[in-house]
């Protein structure tokens, strides 16, 4: 039998990135799937030395492997270099940001009397993330919100196809087309057009402010959420809060050829280096990566091991109410793999 080894670009990132990346590599390796990890470091000092947010070693590696597992990278606020994440998504045309938000068994949250199981589909390449900002005259700035038919149709098709293939029943498009009649209006028209091709899937529309309210009041009624970039970003953190916080929500940036898997959370500078970061989000992201690689059984075992560790409640990290270190939690996941 030929042993397959999947080449994967590993970008540990900075802040808690290297800690959760190390934990994730250990957990994935323990599933028995052979991964050829090709490490590509990326942080503020590498970026300033290279003079570009995506230095050639990162681009070349992803062009070779087509699959990445990425920790967070700190983005300077109100100035400094452009976001690495935005650049990566544009460079590799990773147009669909997919974020499953599910209750974990045993994890105490404000909503633990209901089962939350939704998947967020966030358009990943345009909207206010186009980075087109301009100071018209001193103290007057415009920021361009770009919405195109091509990108809106593409993310809607991705979300509906996923709904159909995974047996999900409902898609809610989230917008602010009552105010941004042209931009969000176009996004909505594209969602409606695609929805018409999937008559078996219930389609509805919610204005983003009302959607935020409904998510907090009755989160269990949501199935698939379909959003332009900015609302998708904000609603993802809100949804993470419903199921235990940023430490537990995975994500995938999908293109037609390439895919980069990363948690929803950032570099968490407040806890970096303390050994207490929760690696659940990145480990669950790696389970999505295993699915993408066709390693269904390993993906299922990894998710199952995480669920058992949560159900036991003995080795949980501090952000979800326990006192285990990153390493102790990971050991428990590995011990529960089979
Ligand atoms: P953050 O997600 O880093 O942290 C928000 C809060 O959640 C903090 O209190 C943090 O300790 C906690 N938290 C996050 N992940 C956790 C984990 N795995 N375990 C335990 N606690 C966790 O958001 P923040 O502070 O707004 O951003 C920090 C930096 O990260 C910024 O530079 C931002 O631009 C960057 N960022 C990078 C992302 C990426 O590379 N994909 C995504 C989001 C933010």
Mind explaining what this structure looks like?
The chain is an alpha/beta fold. The chain has two domains: about 1-95 and about 250-338, Isopropylmalate Dehydrogenase, CATH 3.40.718.10; about 110-115 and about 125-240, Isopropylmalate Dehydrogenase (3-Layer(aba) Sandwich), CATH 3.40.718.10. Helix content is about 40%, strand content about 20%. It contains eleven helices and twelve strands. The chain has helices at about 15-30, 45-50, 55-65, 85-90, 150-165, 185-195, 210-215, 230-240, 280-290, 295-310, 325-335; strands at about 5-10, 35-40, 65-70, 95-100, 115-125, 135, 140-145, 170-175, 200-205, 225, 250-255, 260. It has a ten-stranded mixed beta sheet with strand order 2-1-3-12-11-4-5-10-8-9, with helices on both faces. The chain has a two-stranded antiparallel ribbon with strand order 6-7. The longest helix has 17 residues, at about 150-165. The radius of gyration is 20 Å and the shape is globular. The protein starts with 5 loop residues before the first strand and ends with a helix. The model has no long low-confidence stretch (mean pLDDT about 95). Bound molecules: 1,4-dihydronicotinamide adenine dinucleotide (NAI). 1,4-dihydronicotinamide adenine dinucleotide binds next to loops.
Task: Write a compact overview of the structure shown.
This protein is α/β, with parallel strands linked by helices and 338 residues long. It has helices at residues 17-30, 44-50, 56-65, 84-91, 149-165, 183-195, 208-217, 229-242, 280-292, 296-312, 326-335; strands at 6-11, 35-39, 67-70, 96-102, 117-123, 133-137, 140-143, 170-175, 202-207, 224-227, 252-254, 259-262.
């Amino acid at each position: 039998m030929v042993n397959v080894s999947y080449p994967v670009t590993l970008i540990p990132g900075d802040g808690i990135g290297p800690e959760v990346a190390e934990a994730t590599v250990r957990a994935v390796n323990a599933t028995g799937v052979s991964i050829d990890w090709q490490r590509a470091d990326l942080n503020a000092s590498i970026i300033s030395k290279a003079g570009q947010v995506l230095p050639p070693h990162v681009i070349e590696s992803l062009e070779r492997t087509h699959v990445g597992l990425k920790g967070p990278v700190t983005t300077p606020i109100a100035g400094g270099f452009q976001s690495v994440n935005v650049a990566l998504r544009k460079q590799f045309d990773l147009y669909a940001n997919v974020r499953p938000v599910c209750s974990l068994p045993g994890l105490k949250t404000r909503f633990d009397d209901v089962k939350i199981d939704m998947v967020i589909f966030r358009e990943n390449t345009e909207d206010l993330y186009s980075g087109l900002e301009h100071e018209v005259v001193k103290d007057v700035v415009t920021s361009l919100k770009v919405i195109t038919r091509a990108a809106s149709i593409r993310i809607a098709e991705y979300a509906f196809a996923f709904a159909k293939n995974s047996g999900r029943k409902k898609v809610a498009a989230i917008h602010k087309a009552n105010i941004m009649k042209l931009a969000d209006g176009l996004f909505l028209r594209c969602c409606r057009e695609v929805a018409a091709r999937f008559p078996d899937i219930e389609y509805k529309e919610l204005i983003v402010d009302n959607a935020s309210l409904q998510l907090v009041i009755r989160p269990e009624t949501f199935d698939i959420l379909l959003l332009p970039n900015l609302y998708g970003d904000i609603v993802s953190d809100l949804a993470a809060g419903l199921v235990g916080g940023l430490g537990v929500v995975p994500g995938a940036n999908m293109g037609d050829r390439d895919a980069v898997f990363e948690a929803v959370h950032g570099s968490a500078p407040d806890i970096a280096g303390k050994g207490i970061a929760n690696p659940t989000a990145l480990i669950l992201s790696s389970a999505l990566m295993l699915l993408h690689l066709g390693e269904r059984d390993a993906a299922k075992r990894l998710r199952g091991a995480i669920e058992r560790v949560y159900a036991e409640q003995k080795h949980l990290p501090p952000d979800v109410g326990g006192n285990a270190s990153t390493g102790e939690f990971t050991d428990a996941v590995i011990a529960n793999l089979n």
